[in-house]
Amino acid sequence: MKKKKILTFLLTLVVITGLFAGCSSSKTSSTGITTTSQGKKIDKDKIKVGFIYLAAVGDGGWNDAHNDGRLALEKMGIKTIYKENVPESQKVQTVIEDMINQGCNVIIGTSFGYMDYMYKEAQKHPDIIFLHNTGYKTADNMGVYIGRLYEATYLSGIVAGMKTKTNKIGVVASMPIPELYRQINAFALGVQSVNKKAVVNVKWTHTWYDPAKEKEAGKALVDQGNDVISEEQDTTSALDAAQEKGLAGIGFDRDKKNADPKMYMTAPVYNWSVYYKEQINDLIAGKWKSQSWLKGLESGVVDLAPIRDQSAPAGAKEAVAKAKADISSGKLKVYVGPIKDQKGELKVKAGQSLDDAYLQKIDWFVQGINGANEK
């Protein structure tokens, strides 16, 4: 009888223990990631982040902007590694596997063409956190992120519109994808806000990174009479053509601090540390969840680099400061109608504005832009 009571007690204990285990909202993987009801968590000392770059660190633009964010994480005490010159191909998956073998539990891909490969790896490794820049595919363990750089590009358009004397402004553009359309359009709308006569001329390079091709495109625009050159490339080579002719230039992605102050006026820039530190802090706090992250001037993730007095037109700082405050507060919307496309067709009615969902897919140029609308 006594044995029966002991057996009953032990069975009851097993059931109760099982119930508590079943009600528990957390589990820890071999990578140190704990999944709780609030989100995913990793102890700070166990986090290791792998960054994948399309080109080399030192490009002065896109890749350096992301590397600045990586260095900000290291200042927080987070371990990081990175791989340069990774093409938008299946090579991405090989690099990811290698990073995981090196102990990385967070993988960050910084180029649009990495998306499908990262998504495949996210499905293969559900216990690894993936963050993909500029894409749109998400999973429970894969988030995407981008900043509303077009808001800062609008501000740079104000500077360009006030600077030009020929009323011809050139833009060297990389790939015909929505990201570029919304930024070039915003640039042109900024130009038009201060100079109705000016036109924006676009030349595509069909490459993210090719310094020689970028400079060649910049030279072609200079030869066509454009006296201000802006660029939407990973490097700043397009501005070399402007500098050689004593013309004005506007950079992209990152402040070109060492540029000729008589040529270089400013640049719309990313401060990716805002996003990277937020994501890592969320992981440490146990509240990381996959999301499509999109913020603008109000967050500090995008901004306009300091305007150079030696090259920028008089009054540009004041005009930009007012527009920036109005955009940040919501008083000014970049894409508010009436807006017509290149063919003169009304695309946005007066008083209406384009939302983020539309802008994520935009594939047309506004009126006042010359250049192929390539799809």
From TrEMBL:
Gene3D superfamilies: 3.40.50.2300. SUPFAM superfamilies: Periplasmic binding protein-like I. It holds the Pfam family Bmp. InterPro entries: ABC-Purine-Binding, Peripla_BP_I, PnrA-like. This is Membrane protein, Bmp family. It comes from Clostridium tyrobutyricum DIVETGP. The lineage of its organism: Bacteria, Bacillati, Bacillota, Clostridia, Eubacteriales. One of its GO terms (cellular component) is plasma membrane. PROSITE patterns: PROKAR_LIPOPROTEIN. Residues 47-308 form the ABC transporter substrate-binding protein PnrA-like domain. Keywords: Signal. Residues 1-21 form the signal peptide.
